[in-house]
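Issue: copy button drops trailing tokens. Both records pasted manually instead:
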Amino acid sequence: MCTAPRHDFSTQECWGETLALLRWVSEDRGCLSVREPRKAIKLWGISSRQRQLPRVFWRLLISSSRLRATAMLRNYIISLAWLLGMVQAAPSENSKLHHPPNVFSKTDKYPFPNQGHIHAHDPNIVQHDNKFYLFKGGIQVPIFKSSSLSGPWTKVGTVLDGPSVIDKQNRTRPWAPTTVEWKGKFYCFYTISQDGVRNSAIGVASTDSIESGWTDHGGLIYTEKGPLAHVWPYTVSNAIDASFIADQQTGQPYLQFGSYWHGIFQVPLADDLLSVKNPEHPAAKNLVHLPDGNPKPDEGSFMSYKEPYYYLWFSHGKCCQFNKGFPTMGQEYSIRVGRSKDVRGPFVDKQGKELTEGGGNTVYDSNHGIVYAPGGLGVLPANTTDPDVLYYHYLNTSVGFSHGDALLGWNYLDYEDGWPVARGTENFAATVRPNYSFIVAAILCMCCLALILLPVRFTGQRLMLPFILLVATGFLWLHG
């Protein structure tokens, strides 16, 4: 029989005593006083707030490995309790960020997204051979494949075999890819840039097979530095966020690009899509511009067609770096659109205001206090079974606000008087996939306890099996 030393667990300043207790747990056969459960619970809570739970968990497990069965069982149970506390008390990124009240819009004007079940910032999706292919920014431009927009997604390759041949910073992690099928080949336009600068370039790669065999052709458009960067509009624009459209009447291909500075531009492409048509004197058009204010947060353009209109989509507002602070509600990313019967514009919103004068209808925005800063969008054209699909990335306020937290969302589009409206199709909560790691962890935990409780004599070697199982449980639970 052993007696635990008495400690005051009532204040957060007792962490030194907590460590003393844990040392005693290890050295004195693990007798954490189960006769004083309230104190144990307080210890759990204090260590949660002090973010010391991992140390508690491992100390208890390590001490358990050399105890008799009864003491070991007690420590396993206590360890599991602390592990649960670790999961519950681990602060989300939200809790570490200060934000003023009323940052997240709770409006229900917009539907919840259908979830794509993949993290993707600036996603681009192509439908080919009854499969969906998703391209996203990242190392060498990763490619994912699925039979459904809701996944599961399988990585099948990358566009680039290594760094881009474009000689600019950040060329190992291209941004915002746009992939199109054109005359039997696939072309991927990608961005090489860094935050807050105009020293950017749009490159292009091509292949005969969407999953492999890509050839990097290098830069198509340069701004600030590089070939023809002195030519207008490259002198006032930023060469990022490329998108593609072809004139429905003539077949002439066009590239849209741009961000902040002077807005979004369009230039005609050569028929092979590997260069700008008449590169030294491109027939450029300014399609989106905010004449007043600085900064001018319009970017991420995409153009779709639904007879008789071309729709120019773009993202408006602050897209990222929310770890540095949140903007006033309504100034984060939102998805806007204008339309024109001419691929070259002018594009106007529902009120007839041109996009070059700051116009644009909001089609999708932050909503329900959960969906935040949707943007980086694209539109899949309707097929024989489904209408047009608006897809985008968004942040879930219960998950986090870093670049890697961006999630794929999508909604079908209806058109009211020729204006697109995002349609809700499913319950947001119901789309959350089961946490299989949690399920496996729970099964391992039950196996562990069953082994401990078996009415047989335990040896040291026998006791190590449930110990190993519980360690595996911990890793799955924490990293699942």
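Record 2 (pasted manually too):
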Amino acid sequence: MNTGRQEPRSQYADSAQQQQRLRPLQRQAVPAARATASRMLRSMHMRRRFRLPTASPFEIPITCPDDVLAAVFERLPPGEQAVTIGALSRTWRVWAAPRRAALMQACDVVRNASGPSGQPRLSSAPGCAVGGSVWRSEGRKPSAFSLPPWFVREAWPRLTDRQRLAAASRAAAHGDTWLQPWARAAGGERWERRLCEAAAAGGSVRALQRLRAAGCPWDEATCAAAAGGGHLGLLQWLRAAGCPWDAVTCERAAAGGHLSVLKWARGAGCRWNEWTCAAAAGGGHLRVLQWARTEGCPWDEWACEAAAAGGHLGVLQWARGEGCPWGKRMCAAAARGGRTDVLRWARNAGCPWDERTCEAAAGSGCVDALQWARSAGCPWGTRTCAVAALAGHLEVLRWARDAGCPWDRFTCVAAAFGGHLEVLQWARQQGCPWDARACCEAARRGGHQSLLRQIDDSVSSSARAGAGAGGGWLRRRAPACLCPV
């Protein structure tokens, strides 16, 4: 019966319809915003290069108010906001400052986080892709190529070879191949192989086609990268085009949990080995591991170790129930991940351990895991304190010493190599033996110049008073900028 009343519309439905209407406008706004910023930047470069007055024929008048321009620039990728817009004027530099800080923070997050199995760590060098949670928390998709091409072109002569390779790889991973000639000039064929691998990891068939047309070689790593990204269509295209592959392809597919890719690769004759099961276990992909075992894929103790390192207790329990072997490294892997529950279950199930378990727990900074291991009778040695000092975990080091853990001069050497001044000072105050020369050399190799100065200053007075050889050696080994005047 129709009462004449209208049912209230859901706010989510209205929001969805509004987003659907705005989506074409958003696709048009990004190129328009980029073009506007490019014109403004080109005008600024013209004035600086030819020393033109403000009212010059090259000046492009911007009649839009700042709030309108800000709304337009908000639709640019993060890298364009931080670099291009920040270079327009002092006002826009202030506007771009928090975005630049967020971009650097996101790059640090990606750089410090290790990638999937076999993947290199990302770099915060110019051109690195941003995948941090800073931009995702705003509901914005990260930029495919975080820093604009003009910025990378200008910075290219000042970059190291590693930074250039990172920039070219990040570009190729997201379909941009304009750095390929520069990569060829800088690194030759080896770099070009990396570009094909990066393009395959990004799933860009068009980028791979352009790279191949330009003469870039490929190898087994290209198929492995496509499998690791779950790009089944690209992997099929690569094989049809004659790209080689090996067992790493199945390993990468298993590590990513891409069961369909793994099934197709096996059906097409791709080899696999024990690392396939280890990769599936390390990623916590139980279905992939179960299918691989039913198809006769071999495994060894690395499968249990990978599951323990990832904290996947369910995968570990299933693997042990199926007779997968394990060894002393497995307890160390669980302790390294700070997973006391996995470590406890493994010990109750009879898994052996040794001093490496306490070392791994100390290196992870998990006091609970170290305390439980010691309460259960796990042995330790001087390396436990050294590993804790190397990682900078002062709380772990304090507890270990209070519990009677031995140490030696390598504790101070490890703290110096890691650049942890507070740990080094505490260890010296507690009477830890040390070797000034070894600590100075460790700080120098670790790149910690400020710590090197602290060590040199701490022994310089005693060197002048009569311990001359030690202090003189330190001053001779220290960089010129650190030597006392």
